[in-house]
Amino acid sequence: MDKLLFGAAYYDEYMPHERLCRDVELMKRAGVNTVRIAESTWSTCEPQPGVFDFSHVERVMDAMEAAGIGVIIGTPTYAVPAWMVKAHPDVLVETKQGPLRYGPRQIMDITHPVYLYYAERVIRELMKRTAHRTCVIGFQIDNETKHYGTAGPAVQAQFVKHLRREFHDDLDAMNRAFGLDYWSNRVDAWEDFPDVRGTINGSLGAEFEKFQRGLVTQFLSWQAGIVNEYRREDQFITHNLDYEWRGHSYGVQPDVNHFHAARCLTIPGVDIYHPSQDALTGAEIAFGGDMSRSLSGGNYLLLETQAQGFPDWTPYPGQLRLQAYSHIASGSCSVMYWHWHSIHNACETYWKGLLSHDFAENEVYREACAIGAEFERLGSRLVNLRKRNDVAILVSNESLTALRWFPIRATAAGSGDLFYNDVVRWLYDALYRMNVECDVIWPESEDLARYKAIVVPALYSAPDALLERLERYCEAGGTLIATFKSGFADEYVKVSDGVQPRILRRCMGVRYHQFTLPNGVTLQGEAASGADDREAKGFMELLIPEGARVLARYEHPAWGEYAAITRNRFGKGTAVYLGCMTGEAVLANVLRGALTDAGVQIPGQAFPVILRGGVNDFGRRVTFCLNYSADAQQVQACMTGRELLGGRAVAQGETLTLAPWGLAILEEA
């Protein structure tokens, strides 16, 4: 990118009256240089089969082109028109709960040949009218795509073909891998394969979910292939990936493998929504940004984030600006809001944009104007920020799925309340609050040796080859930090019949035969030293050291002989094992000790001041000092150079005062 993109989604189709000229005027005043259009309006663009009307798209392109504002064209394929469903009702997805009804978006079977026929046709017609336009800088394929639970007969037939390839037509091998003899689930002829939606077998169910994620990869690659036939070399292809949703963006997406799906993109894109007001910590911004940046090893586009959003998201003064720079600090080349205006009908009426329903200037819009002016002035120094981190966190879609089938805190009464993403965020958030930046890696990621430390949360389902790679990484000098439930089952979610933690046993220097749930259990030992909260949380493995040093034991009349947290020298490296969840202070003690010994620099400053940075296009180090607090905070300048926002010189060690919800950006001399 040659500049930071700043803008919003813009829907001329939704306006209650003519607004385009006035909106362009307000956009220019706010420094908006990019809009996203067209993604949501298939029925407007094609009101009847083969009858196309792109007048809304064309008039917006005309206006933006005249104003010098770039346009990202979204393919409109994630919300099907009513005429298609009327003529072909079976394009609606058939899920575990049965066929869905028309109305919401994203209710179609993304593998259905009729849907794909019409989708290809509308994409091609849209591309013919947009790809040649000078204002069009790139294309967004579809929108927050997932498999939507598609599990109809055609999809299941494809799944059986997948299994035949996976197991080389060997039914006995498949039955063994999945343990299908249990409860007479064995399949002895491919043509007898049952409806997977009814399975009680977690191995088979997890394999089907993995297959469903693969359908998303295929679908996005198919769309990218069509767009590639039309786009110019200077136009990008992106997609707005999103994350597990817990009222905001939270964790690894269960229904898409981002690492696989992003391969067809020229630059990854992401949607990140987060708590606001007093609940704003920046952790979701950082987590989503680090995940997205790590997909390509470069940069990414923030395609959607909130301006106002819901009432509890209305930002305090200064927060919109803080959030914008937090995205840039993670390596984003853009900040784009959903959306420009607040709509007046339908289910997202109160998901407010930069402008409220009255279209009048407001505090959020005025703060956006300040951001836009700063982006225009400083963008060349902040775009394409390059990072090289010493720490990585390994995430696994397969483990996420497996731990939904076999929840960590499952009891006879139910599945409990602790899942894979809780463990991921427990570790990630601790690193974030310590100001240790990290990359995200996947089971297929190569070059583990580039990292001084790798953090492995609950890697429940993993092939032997991955565990062996992690063991070799540690033996060669790396620091491996793993948690409970790691290495427990293979890639088909078959639990090992060996002593746990299986292949990692030698590396970690511990074994265990039993696990339980904490009930009045506290931790004692050096890892718990000075911690107010010494409670063992969530889940606990009863660790028996085999050469490992004990950092914490369980303080409990029944479990007191067992270790909770250990550390082991293995070859040239170090392995740390967390047999339970802990409070924030205990975890910080463990991580600080392991990372310091690994040679990872840990700043003296911690949350609520967040430090993030990288190297800009001028080869200069840039550090963002972000205050996630309603109180002023002080920070020591980590370099001699210039504070970009204020334009003044700073000396290393100089004390800087950050305003409430404020920031400083330092560029080295």
How are the SSEs ordered, and which strands pair?
Layout: E1 5-9, H1 20-30, E2 34-37, H2 42-45, H3 55-67, E3 70-74, H4 82-87, E4 94-95, E5 98-99, H5 113-130, E6 136-140, H6 153-166, H7 171-178, H8 202-228, E7 236-238, E8 240-241, E9 244-245, E10 249-251, H9 258-261, E11 269-271, H10 283-296, E12 301-304, H11 319-329, E13 334-337, H12 363-382, E14 391-394, H13 397-405, H14 420-433, E15 438-441, E16 453-456, H15 464-475, E17 479-483, H16 504-508, E18 510-516, E19 522-524, E20 537-545, E21 549-555, E22 563-570, E23 573-578, E24 580-581, H17 584-597, E25 609-615, E26 621-627, E27 633-636, E28 641-643, E29 648-650, E30 655-658, E31 663-668
Parallel strand pairs: 1-2, 1-13, 2-3, 3-6, 6-7, 8-11, 11-12, 14-15, 14-16, 16-17, 17-23
Antiparallel strand pairs: 4-5, 9-10, 18-20, 19-21, 20-24, 21-22, 22-23, 25-26, 26-31, 27-30, 28-29, 28-31
Strand order of the largest sheet: 15-14-16-17-23-22-21-19
What's the average pLDDT? 97
> Any idea of the CATH topology of the domain at 391-597?
Rossmann fold
Counted beta strands: 31
End-to-end Cα distance = 23 Å
Structural class: alpha/beta
Globally, the shape reads globular
Proportion in β-strands: 15-25%
Reading off the top of the CATH hierarchy, the class of the domain at 391-597 is best stated as Alpha Beta
Helical stretch tally:
17
Q: Looking at this structure, what is the CATH superfamily of the domain at 391-597? A: Class I glutamine amidotransferase (GATase) domain
Low-confidence stretches: none
Evaluate the radius of gyration: 26 Å
User: Helical residue percent?
Assistant: 25-40%
CATH hierarchy: architecture of the domain at 391-597: 3-Layer(aba) Sandwich
The biggest sheet, with number of strands, parallel, antiparallel or mixed sense and barrel status, is:
8 strands, mixed
